[in-house]
């Protein structure tokens, strides 16, 4: 990973879904995110926010354009290489938490170490440290279903930082949370950002968006800086 | 609050000139989704639904169990047969002239054994020795050790007089306890020699032959040259006085022999039964009755075949159903766990990682079914064998093979669902939620 290079560099990225009718969810997007950037993305429903996040997270490929992640040109990578890069570089936080309901909180957090190559002896101490870090050290053996929404999202945040990523991508992470727990989760994100992680948060919430250093708006697949 | 140092490890060391390839492939070095990780994930995947797991493995359990039972019973039955298997009976054959009922109801022979019958059949493969036997018709004539008919002596039942060819003793596995059996020379010259069965010798008071004792058929003396014993196939020989066929033909006008005894090689029964009549009379071989043993392996095969066909087919059907069951449940599991698949992909799982997870789950389910089925099968065979007082014979490699067959069924059953799971797009999968 080239530390001098921006974490994210999108050049004229277009993503269209072949129809009919063909939908161009992203239209010629240019975006640069540097180390430690804190970016919020706002826009109406169906404007292309999730599509942008999927491209950034290597879950989707641009139809046209270039995407460099940490200086690496991702278009040239095969599926397994993209999976490896994703595992080590990016942490995801989803609106619906995406915790495995039959596994303990600790197991859910450990899951992120499986595919990212965290050495076995480091896995357990890291997971425990991460859970302590999000204030859930006393909930490790609980099942996610017994936790509140705010607690579940904190588990998801702990999982997202397990592989020491450079970039956290959060798609409406507070969408299922009330005002107070939203604030707690955002505090957590900002602590991570203060440590140098780049943070991208999609949100509908004006308050949440306002906390970011930088905010971009997507409308009909086009990005504009606010 | 600060992030623990270990979480920041990666950001500190990256040099400006780090090579792209090294970065991209870095994960492949260390503990990335090892087989240990895979097995842990699989055990959680399977362990989630105990009730469903039981239902899933049922078909495989039944299939493997019935295969083990089939083969186990066949082996046990084969063991029984070979235990009861009589080596003497299996190496002895008898040829008799065919018979038919005449108009007045008497049995009449429809053919005659040729006098050179032993030579003819001894040329066949599998025939070791052959000998003719004929009853010599002497009517009321007494067979005694002394020529003078002493009216004061108590009436003793005189022994029967038989004529045989020189090979008979060996053909019926007899043994000369004193002296010897007559040979082809005696036969050809129609010498007046006789051999006595052990019990007849006792009754006649003859126990040694070196003094060349005589025996009288009516008034005619015959020199006793041997005493014979151990003829289990024709125990009546023990109570008989035996003369060469040539002698019987010359002295008593013997018309024909009544049977041909053959000593055969083990397993040659079927062959001899087919070929001996042809050797005796190529034109009308059907006019001879042959009693030849079915060979031991023939018996075992027929017993095995009887059991195998029914149970084997049932077992294979159950196994097929088991395989379909596993495929079906794994497919269900794939669609239920779409969100989990999406999450794992987001966490860096490759298509191959996803495929191997479902594949191994399916194999483990199959192996589990195979192990349980093999155990059930062994138990069934042992239980039935104990009740029947048989010795249970079960081949250990066969049992292990059967258990592994369960894994193979799982492998085959998992292929399609695993492929399907690996093709789920992560974005679509993530939308499904966990
Ligand atoms: N897989 C897909 N196939 C076709 N159209 C899609 C697909 N995914 C998203 N879209 C379309 O792309 C546009 C942007 O979607 P999305 O990025 O999910 O919007 P947002 O997250 O801003 O609500 C929408 O019009 C949506 O219908
Ligand atoms: Mg969206």
From TrEMBL, chain A:
Keywords: ATP-binding, Nucleotide-binding, Transport. Gene3D superfamilies: P-loop containing nucleotide triphosphate hydrolases. The keyword Nucleotide-binding applies. The keyword Nucleotide-binding applies. GO terms for molecular function: ATP binding. Residues 8-226 form the ABC transporter domain. PANTHER family: ABC TRANSPORTER ABCH.1 (PTHR24220:SF86), IMPORT ATP-BINDING PROTEIN (PTHR24220). This is ABC transporter ATP-binding protein. It comes from Agromyces humatus.
Automatic annotation (TrEMBL), chain B:
It is found in: Cell membrane. Pfam families: FtsX (PF02687), MacB_PCD (PF12704). Belongs to the ABC-4 integral membrane protein family. It comes from Agromyces humatus. PANTHER family: ABC TRANSPORTER PERMEASE YTRF (PTHR30572:SF4), MEMBRANE COMPONENT OF TRANSPORTER-RELATED (PTHR30572). This is ABC transporter permease. Keywords: Cell membrane, Membrane, Transmembrane, Transmembrane helix. The chain crosses the membrane at residues 309-334, 354-387, 393-416. Residues 54-266 form the MacB-like periplasmic core domain. It is a multi-pass membrane protein. Residues 313-426 form the ABC3 transporter permease C-terminal domain.
